[in-house]
Design a protein that fits this description.
Strand order of the largest sheet: 1-2
Number of domains: 2
Number of helices: 7
Distance between the termini: 57 Å
Largest sheet: 2 strands, antiparallel
Helix content: 40-55%
Order of helices and strands: HHEEHHHEEHH
Length: 166
């Protein structure tokens, strides 16, 4: 009988440890991946509230490169905080945000062409016909590059339907 009690106590300890690990993994998953889901509800892709992950949207046009913005130069627009590298870029954006803001709220242009929102990486940027686009990753960007005009046409049709969806 004593053997069964010892075995039962050991099993209970294992069950408690395993349950604790499962709960911790679930909490970590919610913490790590939860932000992306919430960010995808808004019209603007803004992880942690930062549009374009804190990069200066004007710089993609003027510097032809991703330039991280400064906490000193921010602007609230469409529920997100936009960051700028200097006051001049901030002023340019304020005058005409539609010119500098990425298409499809900064979500993946290829994903939008396929009818859904997808997060993006800043290094996948493209300026085409005076408009800024981003893609999910470099592999998706390669697909995007094969038929940008076709994908833009399809994404332009899809965006009004999906921009406020999660």
């Amino acid at each position: 009988m004593e053997y069964l009690q010892t075995l039962s106590t050991r099993n209970m300890k294992k069950i408690i440890i395993a349950s604790s690990i499962i709960v911790l993994v679930a909490i970590a998953g919610i913490t790590i991946w939860g932000n992306t889901g919430n960010d995808m509800k808004s019209e603007i892709f803004a992880p942690n509230g930062k549009a374009i992950k804190g990069y200066d949207p004007v710089a993609f046009f003027t510097e032809k490169a991703p330039v991280i913005g400064s906490e000193k130069f921010t602007y609230q627009w469409k529920g997100a905080t936009w960051y700028f590298s200097d006051e001049n870029h901030l002023d340019q954006f304020k005058k005409d945000p539609e010119t500098y803001a990425p298409q499809y709220g900064g979500y993946c242009a290829y994903g939008t062409s396929q009818g859904h929102k997808a997060p993006t990486e800043t290094d996948t940027w493209t300026v085409k016909d005076g408009k800024l686009y981003f893609n999910y990753n470099q592999d998706v960007k390669q697909t995007w590059d094969k038929d940008q005009e076709g994908f833009i046409k399809q994404a332009d049709q899809n965006w009004p339907k999906i921009k406020n969806e999660n």
